[in-house]
Amino acid sequence: PEETVTSSFAAFVHAVRPEHLSKMVCHRSKRMILDSIGVGLVGSTTHVFDIALQYCRLYSSVAVSSVYGKPGVKLSPTLAAFTNGVATHSMDFDDTWHPATHPSGAVLPALLAASQMLPPSTKPNGVDFLLAFNVGLEVQGRLMHFSTEAHNIPKRFHPPSVVGTMGSAAATAKLLSLSAAQCAHALGIAASLAGAPMANAATQAKPLHIGNATRLGFEAALLAARGMEANPSILDDIPGCSGFSAFYSVYQPKPLSTPSDHHEFLLEKQDIAFKRFPAHLGMHWVVDAALSVRNLFINYAGSFSPSLIRTIVLKIPVSKYINRPFPSSEHQARHSFQFNACTALLDGEVGLSSFTEGSIHRQELRELLDKVVVEHPEDNEANFDKMYGEVALLLHSGDVLTGKCDTFYGHWRKPLSKESLLKKFRSNASHVLPEEKIETIITMVDNLENLSDSSQL
Predict the structure, then answer these.
(1) N or C: more exposed end of the chain, with fewer CB within 10 A?
(2) Which pLDDT tens digit goes with each residue over 239-285?
(3) What are the CA-CA distances from residue 298 to residues 235, 302, 306, 341, 358 (Å)?
């Protein structure tokens, strides 16, 4: 049969082998796995996670898969994937790639649940697990490169609800050793389960996008394994009958070459961004800019004195869903340039406690927010590879102090050090796990290639 874009992806998923993973890809993906587990563990302390868990416990039958932060709780595999996906994105603390998506949370929970689902005789080892995880990343990345629209901060669909669902399907299809034909059907089924609107950003519904992506991709692979068929050309651009192209106004699919000794995974070329605090990635630019100008202001005035400030000017890209002058909830605050800049100015840091009700509704913070003016310079693109954040303090004295951030610490151009990543993981995991278990997870992920049974993770 004639090769199509879809069949090339299916062939890749089926044929790729552990030896195709470079040392750099293994290193970077293990950092992603560790970070994603950590943000999932701390995410298990949130209200939206509790809602998801209560819902899933009502409908869980064959309860064999674990839940982040709840040692005594088991759920059926797909519902465990859903719940852990919600936990991962509940604080918007998970990793971000370019083009823009949250790749790990859409894949890792499905693989963890699937590993526990499989019988002892077919448990995947750590190498199998790492390969499946990278298959899920690769499929997401390749699909994002089909459209120039995907390179910018999204306006229509939340990317992980689209490409994440497909990545989960590909990853679990690989872990379950599906045939090439079944892999193609899994992608086709997943496309019918994908998509969530950006209007639900900054609400409790946004974490469901990751939960559904990892769960529904997993379900697509399970359905394909049981003989369900879908359009075998779902990724191809067929005029008059949209497949995956329905999610993009510009769509130019390209075949994925059969894996060889020379195959270069996208993760080799494009590293990941890890967040230092739990908020939308765009917030990290304005926070670092705000911290920079705060230091200048303290040197100028001797201390941080808001009464000396007449106006706070934020120079940010145009992006409506993260331009929120007066957020009223934690989820809105995580998606507000104004809130994060002013919190950094007032407190000298942004962290987990910044998004509590008490912190959000402080009078002194509201007074700072009242002084904010937003500007959108033409050269500040809504693109995580090109944007910058600038915070200027216009003082009553007439003086102007300015801080600017082109690349924050944690961005793929300035990656977190091993020490910083471990510090973040230990801090997140300590909310629900004792120190001994935290160190065990760190060791297992670091030595994932030597793990005989990935369900132990």
Answers:
(1) N
(2) 888 999 999 989 999 999 988 877 899 999 999 999 999 999 999 99
(3) 55, 5, 11, 16, 25
